[in-house]
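Homework-ish question, so no full write-ups if that breaks the rules, but can someone show me the predicted structure for this set?
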Amino acid sequence: GAVVSQHPSRVICKSGTSVKIECRSLDFQATTMFWYRQFPKQSLMLMATSNEGSKATYEQGVEKDKFLINHASLTLSTLTVTSAHPEDSSFYICSADNRGRTTDTQYFGPGTRLTVL
Amino acid sequence: EDQVTQSPEALRLQEGESSSLNCSYTVSGLRGLFWYRQDPGKGPEFLFTLYSAGEEKEKERLKATLTKKESFLHITAPKPEDSATYLCAVRVLYNTDKLIFGTGTRLQVFP
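A: Not a homework solution, just the prediction itself:
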């Protein structure tokens, strides 16, 4: 149980294009989902917290107009990197909170490798 | 300021050589401490959640323990497949959404 999927796993795009990444909780409902970015050999950097049906909360220094987040349902959140540039190339990972009577854990997706040419 | 510090940064073990990874934390109030394993090019995989001092959890060769200031991840008789980066994270009482991560310990187990 507690599986989080991401799609696509890998994407290569040209500079200036937009890329959408989907994050789904497959076997639980997640009122809160998170988007992280990870650079090689570094820990995860939280970009934003996404609550179902409301606007995302972005961390300091993260451009909300560049990284659009939508959390339309309890099982789906999307991250759109708009007008992508080579410096946006990175490993993007989503996570989802599974909270209930006996659980309070954040589960992570497998990640999406974005390469902007 | 809430902080999580992991040590060592990297650890090389011979197969079968038991050891421990440390996660020290300074938070205003701990809601939970989490251990994850991350393989290269993949998302973190959940291992354990610990909520209160004195709590212990085990899974195969791994055992996690918690005190009021730190957590240990004990690895007994490790195998090469245990090689990965182990991440520690905390969730604090006043902000129960975010996880505050340490920088991780890169473990390599050699046959």
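Now go work out the reasoning yourself. Hint: The first strand of chain B starts at residue 3 and ends at 7.
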